[in-house]
Amino acid sequence: MRPFELTAPATVDAALATPGTFLAGGTTLVDLMKLNVLTPQHVLDINELPLRGIDTSAGLRVGALERMADIAAHPGVYPAISRALLLSASQQLRNMASIGGNLLQRTRCTYFRDVAMPCNKREPGSGCPAVNGANRMHAIFGASEHCVATHASDVAVALVALDAEIRLVSEDGERVVALRDFYRQPGDTPDVENDLRPGELITEVHVPRKDWAAHSTYVKVRDRQSYEFALCSAAVALDVQDGRIVDARVAAGGVATVPWRLPAVEESLRGKPVGLASFEEAASKAVDTAELLAGNAFKASLLKRTIVRALLELTEGGLR
């Protein structure tokens, strides 16, 4: 780790007025600084800023500095969000990591994290060895010839499924962005991962109220049971009335360069009876646009099975 200057602004205005890299829980930033993937000269510890609070009275509002563990344990948090948080990391990391930091975490692609290797995310124009290299963990959606790295966040998948928004502030003012639109596919600029502007800070996450989002879940498939990133995951929510699906939300993780919403699956579910046949038909729509690599072709069938499993878990648990 290279030397850096650390300051702790006491107000949001002071933080926005001071050039530097924001530090919250540090569970991603510090790791990448140790690897020299990131080498900020000035780090701003923002943990004392008034960006906390969890409100479930009208949907969900969460301050960006709320810890993952506290959000997961809070009554009234939609199950898909709570479950995604619980499956994200160890208890110790969940106690430290902030929701804002989680949404901005960088990819776990081994080429990105190894400064001895080329990586277009880290050094634009240097190449993407994962395209023809070790790509078992990599994306089948949203990739380009310049980058095939997957997005790392579990909870972002659940939040995208439930139409979450984030509030951002800068010295230029405040804006609200749909989380689904916040993330950017790599295209020919894989180093630009999201729509966060210079000097901008996430202050709040908002999930609009959907009473039927209480009927939601998150399923994560990985190589080992704990402390591992997703090979494939699915966040689903269903509105079921009289045995038929009125509305649905479905998003996938571990398979795309961004949290991947699946509108074709949602559309296929609407109006169908609850049951395995409906779920399998809808899940088959999930991979229509998949682009498979030599090492990750298995993810196409795994994604379909993961979606079906999530839907079965949700409905066999009592939703009819």
UniProtKB/TrEMBL annotation:
Keywords assigned by UniProt? Oxidoreductase
What species was this sequence derived from? Answer: Kutzneria buriramensis
Q: Can you name this protein?
A: Xanthine dehydrogenase YagS FAD-binding subunit
* Single GO molecular function: oxidoreductase activity
* Signal peptide location: none
Q: Where is the FAD-binding PCMH-type domain?
A: 1-212
Fetch the InterPro entries from UniProt: CO_DH_flav_C, CO_DH_flav_C_dom_sf, Diverse_Substr_Oxidored, FAD-bd_PCMH, FAD-bd_PCMH-like_sf, FAD-bd_PCMH_sub1, FAD-bd_PCMH_sub2, Mopterin_DH_FAD-bd
Which Pfam families is this protein grouped with? CO_deh_flav_C, FAD_binding_5
